[in-house]
Amino acid sequence: MNKFKSLLVIITLALVTFSCAKKIPYSKEVEKSYGITEKNLSKLQFYLVNDIVLISDESQNSNSTDLDKEGHIIVKEELNTDRILIKSGTSGIFERKEEGNQIAISFEAGDGKTLSFGASTERGRYIIQALEWKTNGQGIVNYANKKYTLSKNSSGAYITVKLKKSKQLNNSNRIAKGRKI
Predict the structure, then answer these.
(1) Widest CA span of the chain, in angstroms?
(2) Is 94 exposed, middle or buried (0-12, 13-18, 19+ CB in 10 A)?
(3) How many percent of the chain have pLDDT more than 90?
(4) What radius of gyration, in Å, describes the C-alpha atoms of the chain?
(5) Backbone CA torsion sign across 88, 92, 95, 96
(6) pLDDT tens digits, residue range 125-134?
(7) How many domains does the chain have?
(8) pTM of the prediction?
(9) Does residue 180 belong to any structural domain of this protein?
(10) Residue 11 lies inside a defined structural domain of this protein
């Protein structure tokens, strides 16, 4: 009976080992291979690879004819910077399909808080998309109904999904008792 228990433990460990999930880059090829449709996309958990830094600069100049004690004209300038960091590994959900080969992914709740990801080739991973790319490598995106600049390092960000392969091993073991006349 000891051999039977040992075998059972080995089979259980094998099942646990075979059912581990690994993250793979999301691509059109993944969609085709696993039959992912627009309806299925809402059931997928996405994960970000590489940090995304969004920066919004809103400056307001107000000229004033006020003078200080020394007789200088005071010009007030106010600069408000809004910086959002979405860390690598952050989980996101599918929001909607967009033009071409793009999907909108949301990493936080709120109106318009989505980023577009798309692939230019069949095997290419879905990377961050911008409305326009500047020559310095920064991109312009809409986020939370405002224009933000993507940091240069954010341009390589892409999304992954977990792929879990599960193998079921059905084994039947018994010991023959033997027969007597």
Answers:
(1) 124
(2) buried
(3) 33
(4) 28
(5) positive
(6) 999 999 999 8
(7) 1
(8) 0.70
(9) no
(10) no
In a domain, residue 178? The reply is no
Q: Which residue has the tokens 């599918």?
A: 94
The H or E element that residue 73 is part of is strand 73-86
String of DSSP letters for 144-170: TTEEEEEPGGGGG-EEEEEEE------
- Which residues share a beta bridge with 164? 21
Which is more confident, 53 or 169? 53
pLDDT the model gives residue 126? 92
Please state which of the ranges 18-22, 42-46, 82-86, 175-179 shows the lowest mean pLDDT: 18-22
Domain assignment present for 110: yes
| Inter-residue contact 30 to 44 (CB < 8 Å) | no
Specify whether the CB–CB gap between 92 and 107 falls below 8 A.
Answer: yes
